[in-house]
Design goal:
This protein has 284 residues and is α+β, with helices and mostly antiparallel strands. Helices cover 66% and strands 11% of the residues. Helix 6 packs antiparallel against helix 7. The longest helix has 34 residues.
Length: 284
């Protein structure tokens, strides 16, 4: 059996970079090539920045770039959720309250990820009621997840935090403060824009949206410090059909790990082997 090791830090950077660079591309492209259309509102006043919904969902190729970036980053996010589930189960006090809050934190993380996928692929023009509900779900689950992630290490860990974990917690606390402030600011400027149609209010709303999105990405990036000494391993098993005579053994080798593996047929004139790739996340 052979294996490929990937440092979790590298894994996390790639995962967060997918939505980050997709977001940056969409905003910059909209400013360069769709400025007038992406900044237009019902008030017909001058604005200088497109909202996120206009930048990522109103025009092409921005729509496709954003969907690809979110789609590719979604599966690795579930790996991180599972790692946090194990992390909290081991590090939190064994009282039911804290253990259940740890599970709730991971569930909120999963709901945030799923609702983000829904927001990405169901635009407001396609189905506004569904898009609106997904947006509210995303905001509530995201804010609740970040809040619990800051509370649990302070109150319910069975051990002292490492230096990197303390840095992670400090950064999380800073980012959630900025994130909530940006969300409140976005709500204020959005309502003021709709009520008074003042020049620049929609631009400030869009800026607050950007800050909220970027701080959310930064919050998830702190997983690099929480799992600084972890690695992901990809295992590979080679099965040679020409040397496998027992049908039961062959069947189990091919299909016994169907839940956690995928199979790639490699045809060779000499031995016609089948190579199976199993993936798992383990801590070192």
């Amino acid at each position: 059996m052979t294996s490929i090791k990937i440092a979790f830090r590298r894994f996390a950077i790639v995962t967060v970079s997918l939505p980050l660079y997709s977001f940056m591309f969409c905003v910059i492209w909209s400013l360069l090539y769709d400025f007038k259309s992406s900044t237009a509102t019902h008030c017909h006043v001058r604005n200088y920045l497109p909202s996120i919904s206009a930048a990522i969902g109103g025009f092409t190729p921005q729509l496709y770039i954003w969907r690809v970036g979110i789609g590719l980053h979604a599966a690795p996010r579930f790996v991180v959720i599972f790692m946090y589930f194990t992390f909290y189960r081991e590090c939190l006090l064994k009282r039911k309250l804290w253990q259940r809050l740890g599970i709730l934190t991971c569930c909120l993380h999963a709901v945030e990820n799923v609702s983000l996928i829904g927001l990405t692929y169901i635009s407001s023009s396609d189905n506004y009621p569904a898009h609106e509900k997904l947006f509210i779900t995303f905001m509530l689950s995201s804010s609740s997840y970040m809040l619990l992630s800051c509370i649990l290490p302070r109150l319910a860990f069975v051990r002292k935090l490492s230096d990197l974990e303390r840095r992670s917690l400090k950064t999380k606390s800073f980012l959630i403060t900025i994130n909530v402030s940006a969300l409140l600011g976005a709500c204020y400027f959005f309502m003021r824009h709709n009520w008074y149609c003042e020049t620049g209010m929609y631009t400030l709303f869009a800026l607050c949206e950007y800050i909220a999105v970027l701080t959310n990405m930064g919050f998830h990036m702190t997983a690099c410090w929480d799992f600084a000494n972890y690695q992901l391993r990809i295992y590979s098993n080679r099965i040679d059909i020409s040397k496998t005579l027992d049908f039961d053994e062959l069947y189990f080798s091919l299909f016994g790990h169907a839940v956690s593996s995928f199979h790639l047929r490699e045809y060779n004139r000499e031995d016609w082997p089948i190579t199976s790739y199993n993936s798992a996340a383990t801590g070192i």
